[in-house]
Amino acid sequence: MASYDFDLFVIGGGSGGVRSARISATHGARVGLAEDRYMGGTCVNVGCVPKKLMVYAAHFAHDVEDAAGFGWTVDGARHDWATLIANKDTEIARLNGIYRRLLDGAGVTIFDARARLADAHTIEMGETRVTAERILVATGGWPVIPEDHPGHQHGITSNEVFHLPRLPERVLIVGGGYIAVEFAGILHGLGSKVTQIYRGPLFLRGFDNDLRSCLAMEMVKGGIDLRFDCNVARVDRSGDTLLAELTDEDVLEVDCVLYAVGRRPNTRNLGLEDAGVAMDKHGAVLVNADFQSSVPHIYALGDVTDRINLTPVATAEGHALADTLFGGRPRRVGYENIPTAVFSTPPCGTVGLTEAEARARFGAVDVYKSDFKAMKHTLSGRDERTMMKLVVDRNTDRVLGAHMVGPDAGEIMQGVAVALNCGATKADFDRTIGIHPTAAEELVTMRTPMPDPDVDEEGLAAD
Question: Do 196 and 220 form a contact (C-beta atoms < 8 A)?
Answer without folding.
Answer: no
